[in-house]
Design a protein that fits this description.
- The chain is mainly α.
- It has one domain (28-275): Up-down Bundle (Ferritin), CATH 1.20.1260.
- It is built from 13 helices and two strands; from the N terminus they run H-H-H-H-H-H-H-H-H-H-E-E-H-H-H.
- It has helices at residues 17-29, 42-61, 63-67, 76-101, 107-115, 133-150, 159-187, 191-210, 222-227, 235-253, 278-288, 292-305, 307-325, and strands at 263-265, 270-272.
- Strand 1 and strand 2 (270-272) form a beta hairpin.
- Helix 6 (133-150) packs parallel to helix 8 and helix 7 runs antiparallel to helix 8.
- The longest helix is centred in the middle third of the chain and has 29 residues, at 159-187.
- The structure holds fe (ii) ion (2 copies).
- This is 1,2-phenylacetyl-CoA epoxidase subunit A.
- InterPro entries: Aromatic_CoA_ox/epox, Ferritin-like, Ferritin-like_SF, PaaA, PaaA_PaaC.
């Protein structure tokens, strides 16, 4: 559909809002992508901004728990892998802040909301990384849960978000595999290494299941996001899919999942699993997790310490823009 039919021009409503709304609904139903200049309902825009921002914040806060181990990686190979992974997460943050900016918010505003606690990031990153095996458990379980959540987002109705997700998912798959491979090496290592791998899985399993969000009945935004084709599957569906994927992988790893109620249910064709501690989830979300304060404090400090980089980049951009249309000699050829 040509852009003008959906009210292209920055979302202005020139008097016939209902017609734009119908065109929007039809485009979503036809699996067409909504692009930044298309008309969209205010609530659709607000939902996307909230979701993409929270996702972007999670990527950059998520660098902290693993960065904790970069200097202590047990070999050069492991260090190179971990560095690449943590750097990827910074890149994911950038794609996602870029996608959010197409909806009319600035990155500055979003970071300000993160730093002041008005926007959230995934509560998984408020848990500490106590041993080297945690790097493996995060890759296998946390990146694994992220992929389960994010693969359907590659078909999200909003074009810039969907396209960012395609690239992100390719990299997440590398993250998941490196975690699995790291845990496998530990699991097959000395008894102490095996125990360290098991302990990490014991600590990360339940928080990973919480990454899919509250149960369907309590999920505030789910139904509308599904209708808008932002979300494709419910929280509980994705959680079940993740459990079903992990059980055989845990067996191959020679590790157990810390849930006595976990068993195959022939009738359902899925694994049954025990109840998630939603009180813990809400506690961590409220800021009472083991690392909430530290994560935000470090993020704010990193932002302050990076002020000079932003200033230099902005000065460079201004100079570059000034040279484009007019006095090119001002560039001096040295930039
Ligand atoms: Fe990521
Ligand atoms: Fe990742």
């Amino acid at each position: 559909m040509p852009e003008t039919e959906r009210g292209g021009g920055g979302g202005r409503d020139d008097g016939d809002g209902a017609a734009y709304e119908r065109a929007f609904e039809a485009a979503v139903a036809a699996e067409e992508r909504i692009e930044p200049r298309d008309w969209m309902p205010d609530a659709y825009r607000a939902t996307l901004i909230r979701q993409i921002a929270q996702h972007a914040h999670s990527e950059i806060i998520g660098m902290q728990p693993e960065a904790n181990w970069i200097t202590r990686a047990p070999s050069l190979r492991r260090k190179a892998i971990l560095l690449a992974k943590v750097q990827d997460e910074a890149g994911h943050g950038l794609y996602l802040y870029g996608a959010a900016e197409t909806l009319g918010v600035s990155r500055e505003e979003l970071l300000d909301k993160l730093h002041s606690g008005r926007q959230k990031y995934s509560s998984i990153f408020n848990y500490p990384t106590l041993t080297w095996a945690d790097v493996g458990a995060i890759g296998w379980l946390v990146d694994g849960a992220a992929i389960t959540n994010q693969v359907p987002l590659c078909r999200c109705s909003y074009g810039p978000y969907a396209r960012a997700m395609v690239r992100i998912c390719k990299e997440e798959s590398f993250h998941q595999r490196q975690g699995y491979e790291l845990l496998l090496a530990l699991s097959r290592g000395t008894p102490a290494q095996h125990a360290m791998a098991q302990d990490a899985v014991d600590r990360w399993w339940w928080p990973s299941l919480m990454m899919f969000g509250p149960p369907d009945g309590e999920s505030a935004h789910s139904a509308r996001s599904m209708a808008w084709r932002i979300k494709r599957h419910s929280n509980d569906e994705l959680r079940q899919r993740f459990v079903d994927i992990c059980v055989p992988q845990a067996a191959s790893l020679g590790l157990t999942l810390p849930d006595p109620e976990l068993r195959w249910n022939e009738e359902r064709g899925h694994h049954d699993f025990g109840p998630v501690d939603w009180d813990e989830f809400h506690r961590v979300l409220r800021g009472e997790g083991p690392c909430n304060e530290q994560r935000l404090e470090r993020r704010r400090r990193a932002h302050e310490e990076g002020a000079w980089v932003r200033e230099a980049a902005a000065a460079y951009a201004r100079r570059h823009a000034g040279g484009r249309g007019g006095d090119r000699t001002a560039e001096g050829g040295t930039a």
